[in-house]
Amino acid sequence: MPDVNETVAVAFDRPADRKAAEALGERLQLPIAKRFRDPHALHLAVSEPNRIELRVVAADHPLHGGHPVAVELLKLDTASPAGRKLNTPLFKAVGVRKGNPFRPRVLDATAGLGEDAWLLATTGCDVLALERHPVIHALLENGLRRAAEAQPEIATRIELLHNNAAGHLASPNPEPQTSNPDVVYLDPMFPLGRKTAERKPMRVLRMLAGDDPDADALLEPALQRAARRVVVKRPRHAPPLAGREPTVTHAGKALRFDVYATG
Questions:
Q1: What single string gives the DSSP state of each residue in 58-126?
Q2: What is the pLDDT of residue 197?
Q3: pTM
Q4: Whose CA is closest to 250, among 122, 86, 73?
């Protein structure tokens, strides 16, 4: 994983945001950016009240400029007929069924920007989301806080922890409420290949967090922890995680969800 202190600095747009930026920098142990002479490739910016975003500021980087990366969960389509469907590959893989009131308890062990955790929470699932990278965790924490102002009934179904998935899954004494999730959900960084296309937010996260070289090692402890199944999100044409064939697969156009039954 890249050295966060060498990669990221905290910035702010308005003098009124200085205190919030300094508090964020102190919490994450990151420096405050010197605007016009700053060696850091990324700025974690306090851009307006209650919002933080990640900007690529290295002038020679191909992702320089353009839209910043922020967690905007309310922009996910959960209201249209298509957005409310329960027969999407994600929901089917996790075990959400139309006409069945059961909703699994999900441990999202690699939460990232939290989009899948939010989608699952909209169906009624309780989700424990883990994110190990401090900057990505800060972005997701901020996005959840802002989303909760508009849709608290969904946000209260998500608990976010700053924790390492491998350590949490292997812990012999997890917290009681997280000891036996029905589903462990894994969405590690996608392997790069000729057919792998990534949106800018994921490319920025890869630049920040690296390639998840330990992803294969998550499968076995996930299988030991999940009461019902483990679900792994993959590019459609990528090999299965750890080379282990799933029990069943639910595929979309570009993605698939590999399901490993455990109970």
A1: -TTSTT-SSSPB---GGGS--SSHHHH-S-SHHHHHHT--TT-----EEEESS-TT-HHHHHHHHTT-E
A2: 63
A3: 0.93
A4: 86
